[in-house]
Amino acid sequence: MKPQLLHLSSSPWSERARWALQSRRVDYQPRTYKPLLGEPELRWRLRKWSGPVSVPVLLTADGALGDSWQIAQFAARHGSGPELFPAADLARIEAWNTLSEQGLAAGRALSLARVLRDPAALAELLPPALRGVPGMEAVAAGGVRRTLAKYGASAEGNTEALAAVLEKLRDDLAHSPSTATPRTLLAEFSYADITMAQVLVFVRPPATGLKIGRANRAAFDDAALATRFADLLAWRDALYAQYRGAPPPRP
Ligand SMILES: N[C@@H](CCC(=O)N[C@@H](CS)C(=O)NCC(=O)O)C(=O)O
């Protein structure tokens, strides 16, 4: 059985898993997750009957993997291609992944607050048949609020938290042993680059890899941070150009 990836095409958490699987040339079947409607299946697959569940989830012959980190490790064990987790650097890569989680959490809070204020962005979250139907924007807003609450998003301090993660990334790149262009966090491309590049989704989404509607793309964009971290956006774009490879198969 081909592993199946339950994912969201607009999500940087899912993008970490897709990039790792594709980078390791793992043959997998992507399947778009439907928030709320898909939750019962997710709970059943993960055997998790309470507490939050989220995607990406990889369904394998040996059970379900419920986190992008575990999925990337699966890719490292099963595929071929660049070594995503050089053993000597595993602890450092894990630290970068924790940093990425902090940046993504702040970015989620920032961007979803903007989505809540933009009717066009809310409409994009609805299935096409429901767009423009009276009352449906309020349903979409309810879904966004539910997501913010589910992940315990804080209302304050998110710009500073995101900027602090990006300052650390800038510093780590400056001190990296890499001699390549673009530089990588370790001497060679690894999962550290995949996970840290995702934080920049909430500064300005990349042109490829994630499918985000026009209004949501604008809501993810932070003009002030984009100016302040233009060097990191250029790094991320060069990383995508060099290492992201072919777009994912159609869901
Ligand atoms: N630590 C998890 C976090 C994943 C995560 O936050 N997923 C969110 C954003 S894609 C999600 O599933 N949202 C849909 C929902 O909450 O219904 C991972 O990296 O796999």
Structure characterization notes:
By secondary structure, the chain is mainly alpha-helical. The protein has 2 domains: 4-78, Glutaredoxin, CATH 3.40.30.10; 87-244. It is 53% helix and 6% strand. The chain is built from 11 helices and 4 strands; from the N terminus they run βαβαββααααααααα. It has helices at 12-23, 39-46, 68-78, 90-116, 119-124, 136-150, 158-174, 191-199, 214-220, 223-228, 230-244, and strands at 4-7, 29-32, 57-60, 63-65. A 4-stranded mixed sheet has the order 2-1-3-4, sandwiched between helices. α1 packs parallel to α3. The structure holds glutathione (GSH). Glutathione binds at residues 8, 11, 13-14, 35, 54-56, 67-68, 147, 150.
Secondary structure topology:
Elements: E1 4-7, H1 12-23, E2 29-32, H2 39-46, E3 57-60, E4 63-65, H3 68-78, H4 90-116, H5 119-124, H6 136-150, H7 158-174, H8 191-199, H9 214-220, H10 223-228, H11 230-244
Parallel strand pairs: 1-2
Antiparallel strand pairs: 1-3, 3-4
Helix pairs in contact: 1-3, 1-8, 4-6, 4-7, 4-8, 4-9
The protein binds glutathione (GSH).
